[in-house]
Amino acid sequence: MLFKFRVFVTKPPLDYHEVYKITITLQIMNAKIDNLTEDLSLITLNPPIEGFENFISAWLFQGEITFLVDVGPASTADGLLAVLAETGVEHLEYILLTHIHLDHAGAIGQISAAFPETPIVCHSAGIPHLIEPTSLWEGTRKVLGPTADGYGPIQPVAGERFLDAQEFDSKSIEPIITPGHASHHVSYRTPKYLFAGETGGVYYAVSPQRFYLRPATPPRFFFDAAVESIDKLIAANPEKLCFGHYGMVEDGVNKLKTTRQQLFNWKAIIADEIKRTDDDRLMAACLDRLFQEDALVANLDHLPEAARAREAYFLKNSVKGFIGYLREV
Ligand SMILES: [Zn+2]
Q1: CA of 313 to the centre of ligand 1 (A)
Q2: Cα 222 to middle of ligand 1, angstroms
Q3: 8 CA → ligand 1 middle, Å
Q4: 120-122 and 162-164 strand pairing
Q5: CA distance 243 to 203
Q6: Phi, psi at residue 150, to the nearest 5°?
Q7: What band does 23 get if pLDDT is binned at 50, 70 and 90?
Q8: pLDDT at 239 exceeding the cut of 90
Q9: Phi and psi dihedrals of 52, rounded to 5?
Q10: The domain defined by 3-328 carries CATH number 3.60.15.10
Q11: Which of 28, 107, 124, 300 is packed most tightly, with the most Cβ within 10 A?
Q12: 179/222 Cα distance (integer angstroms)
């Protein structure tokens, strides 16, 4: 078993009153766990697909209760279980799923089997696809091809394991129904954290000042629903915002406002290109404009090369979502 253990001690600049921040990173196989705060850890799940390192994640909360948000793909279930075991997690109150795409929910069969008492919270529209996942798996293979094989096939889960997110009621976790990236997407709010899944877009910090941001808007995309969902998250006024892809930010409301503005900018740019560009050049023309006019997309140039190839695919898919939406309205 591949086993790495690192401890980083970071001295906060100037403020000597603040205690030293300690980040512990533990890596086992294809999973890595970083404790970002005293009660929240980011679990990075690296499936065997080039360019997918530091992209897919689950969140582990260990406070008055212990829960997981998302479980990643089936191919990294062994790593996820190993880091949970190594961290001493023997019991989970809940497994919360933001949506059922295989990079978020693909490991649910293995993880739910390892925690047989734990209820799984999911949008009611997603639950039947996890009980009988054949069409979810086949559909994913059709759309993603070899990437789906890298995620691995999802295993079925018994229906009685699920709780409907729309009816879920817990003292410390509030589900917020956020259609947009997927029609069955749910975000989860706790007093300190907001787990936004892909509602806030796909975020990647390049440096403390610079970040890449892309709308997560694959077809079929519904603009108004997506904006309404972001507005719900802004109204929730999160302190710490946890992205599905990738990481946590301290200025959650700012980042959500930036995502919201980006959606409007993309809509204007892509609508303009639809008016003036032939169909066969449309995708290339949209991407050119976005790279010129959206500095956050242009930050793609600062990502590692393999991640750029991954994002080239997903960027096109996000643009496709906008084109489909704009042609329908
Ligand atoms: Zn997704």
Answers
A1: 14
A2: 15
A3: 31
A4: parallel
A5: 7
A6: -65, -35
A7: low
A8: no
A9: -100, 20
A10: yes
A11: 107
A12: 9
The residues spanned by each domain of the chain are 3-328
The predicted pLDDT at position 10 comes to: 44
Express each pLDDT in 106-118 by its tens digit: 999 999 999 999 9
Distance 185 CA to ligand 1 centre (A): 8
Per residue in 28-85, pLDDT tens?
A: 899 999 999 999 999 999 999 999 999 999 999 999 999 999 999 999 999 999 999 9
Q: How far is CA 105 from the centre of its chain?
A: 11
Q: Where are the alpha helices (DSSP H) in the chain?
A: 77-87, 102-105, 108-114, 127-131, 134-144, 146-151, 223-235, 252-276, 279-293, 295-298, 305-328
- How far apart are the CA of 182 and the centre of ligand 1, in A? 7
Cα 93 to ligand 1 centre (Å): 24
Interval between CA 122 and ligand 1 midpoint (Å):
14
Answer yes or no: are the C-beta atoms of 200 and 241 closer than 8 Å: yes
Main-chain phi, psi angles of 172, to 5 degrees: -110, -5
Q: Is pLDDT at 18 greater than 90 in this prediction? A: no
Q: Which residue has the tokens 């001295």?
A: 11
The CA 48 to ligand 1 mean position distance, Å, reads 18
Q: CA-based angle 297:141:305, to the nearest 5? A: 35
